[in-house]
Amino acid sequence: MPQYENPWTIPNMLSMTRIGLAPVLGYLIIEEDFNIALGVFALAGLTDLLDGFIARNWASQKSALGSALDPLADKILISVLYVSLTYADLIPVPLTFMIISRDIMLIAAVFYVRYRTLPTPRTLSKYFNPCYATARLKPTFISKVNTAVQLILVAASLAAPVFNYADSIYLQVLWCFTAFTTAASAYSYYHYGRKTVQVIKGR
């Protein structure tokens, strides 16, 4: 049986805020309003730091939903940012394609895990009910590193037109490093597989 939990925690609300900021950032980048985009991106980063800090330090704020929602919010934010920055010619198309492809596979895996860990009979109402916790997701170390590197590249790319270093060789080196950690992260999930999922037993 799944564990019934309250999904309305502060970390989960912060993750939802981050998801809501994604289209705002995308619009600002497409409109080439990079100064405001940098500020909104800093706000999104703050929500990421706060939800992790709160979940780690207050047991009542930690949830199975949060273990999936936090990385999902990161992936949505990163996907929107990379597509927008590619549209603005600040990040190369192959790198964005690589990142989006990996994230689509990981999101599909999350939905599959949700389906497999639901007790029978499986229904749509039960599947999409955030109060029913069936599994916790544990990201790999290299995946955490990859997320940090991807966000560093986003920050550097957003700042590039503001501080006039869009053609810097250091940005190109960062592109290569981001591609490497993205590939390594994808492989780590393939290699460790079930070790990244903890099925919750009913009380």
Automatic annotation (TrEMBL):
One of its GO terms (molecular function) is CDP-diacylglycerol-glycerol-3-phosphate 3-phosphatidyltransferase activity. GO terms for biological process: cardiolipin biosynthetic process. It is an enzyme of class 2 (transferase). Keywords: Lipid biosynthesis, Lipid metabolism, Membrane, Mitochondrion, Mitochondrion inner membrane, Phospholipid biosynthesis, Phospholipid metabolism, Transferase, Transmembrane, Transmembrane helix. The keyword Transmembrane applies. GO terms for cellular component: mitochondrial inner membrane. It catalyses: a CDP-1,2-diacyl-sn-glycerol + a 1,2-diacyl-sn-glycero-3-phospho-(1'-sn-glycerol) = a cardiolipin + CMP + H(+). Its main location: mitochondrion. It is found in: Mitochondrion inner membrane. Pfam families: CDP-OH_P_transf (PF01066). The keyword Lipid biosynthesis applies. The chain crosses the membrane at residues 91-113, 145-163, 169-190. Its EC number is 2.7.8.41. It comes from the Eukaryota. It is a multi-pass membrane protein. Catalyzes the synthesis of cardiolipin (CL) (diphosphatidylglycerol) by specifically transferring a phosphatidyl group from CDP-diacylglycerol to phosphatidylglycerol (PG). CL is a key phospholipid in mitochondrial membranes and plays important roles in maintaining the functional integrity and dynamics of mitochondria under both optimal and stress conditions. This is Cardiolipin synthase (CMP-forming). It comes from Catagonus wagneri. The gene is CRLS1.
